[in-house]
Design a protein that fits this description.
2 domains; ten-stranded mixed beta sheet; alpha/beta; Rossmann fold; elongated; 308 residues; two-stranded antiparallel sheet
């Protein structure tokens, strides 16, 4: 059965151009998927109207929801979607990520697609708290859409950690690569594998004079090259489409993305929650900030959302 049969698109009420919906339609044309256009709204002023009874406030909320439903239906009527089934749903909630993730869990969506915001003056992408919550807590793949097109015969980058001996990383590497190959068949693109490795730790080179940094780098590079070739061979990916570079993952992936003019980067996120999620130390989140193309973030197999 074709993947991506149920697509949830997060609608942005602040703009008429819904690039996430455009991307979902592009995907659905290939997979014959059903799309749900999902909008969460909230206006604190309605909750603070103390002169009104709870019933009156509920009537006001329903009125706003119906108004947004009409707006969304009008928007869908104006979009060319070639007969693809698109439903719409509007929910009143003060924490937008919660109803989105709950909808995924209850209705078992295959993918969530959400647009990102461009900062006009800084020419960079701004990620909202909702973006980060969805990335960390949504159990299905999350596609963050930027302004890069999806040309035919374009490039997909699968960012893996081939040098790790950790079984979870091996499993995630396989997931990421399989997802890249599957999508490459759907949108007719080329798959490239990228793996970064750390250079010589500066403190060791300084504190231990006899430490041979060149030998260390060569050994580290060889280890990652061997691991990458072993992984690539499992999926019949050619040597020319594998890339092993020294440096931080966010820097290496950004450089390669620009060099290949990639339309999509696929990576894994461990979906941290609790106190550790306060810090944006997750490699995936560092990478996403820097890229100017779409990003597909995957969770490890067996991941359970904290909202489940």
């Amino acid at each position: 059965m074709e993947k991506y049969q149920k697509i949830l698109v997060v609608i942005d009420p602040s703009t008429e151009h819904q690039k996430a919906l455009d991307r979902a339609i592009t995907l659905a044309k290939h997979t014959k998927a059903n799309i749900t256009a999902f909008l969460t709204i909230f206006d604190f002023s309605y909750e603070m109207t103390t002169m009104l009874s709870s019933d009156e406030r509920e009537i006001m909320r329903k009125s706003v929801v119906n108004d947004r439903k009409n707006w969304l239906n009008d928007l869908l009527h104006e979009i060319e979607h070639d007969g693809i089934d698109i439903n719409c749903k509007v929910v009143w909630h003060n924490r937008p990520f919660e109803p989105i993730i709950n909808e995924v869990i209850e209705q078992k969506y295959d993918i969530v697609i959400k647009g990102t915001h461009q900062h006009d003056k800084l020419k960079s992408v701004i990620f909202t708290p909702t973006d980060w919550h969805i990335l960390r807590k949504c159990p299905c793949p999350v596609l963050l859409v930027k302004d890069h097109e999806w040309p035919e015969n374009g490039n997909i980058i699968a960012a893996i950690n081939a040098g790790s001996d950790d079984s979870e990383h091996h499993s995630l590497n396989r997931q990421i690569t399989e997802e890249a190959i599957n999508l490459s068949k759907i949108i007719r693109a080329n798959v490239h594998l990228v793996n970064s490795y750390p250079g010589t730790p500066v403190n060791i080179a300084i504190e231990i004079p006899e430490f041979n940094s060149d030998e260390y780098n060569e050994t580290m590079m060889q280890h990652h090259q061997d691991a990458m070739l072993k992984h690539a061979s499992l999926f019949d990916i050619s040597l020319e489409q594998t890339h092993i570079k020294e440096g931080l993952p966010e820097d290496v992936i950004e450089r390669l993305s620009n060099e290949l003019d990639a339309e999509l980067v696929i990576l894994g996120t461990i979906g941290r929650s609790g106190l550790s999620a306060v810090f944006i130390g997750n490699t995936a989140e560092h990478v996403i900030d820097k890229l100017n193309c779409d990003v597909l973030a995957l969770k490890p197999e067996g991941y359970i959302s904290p909202l489940a």
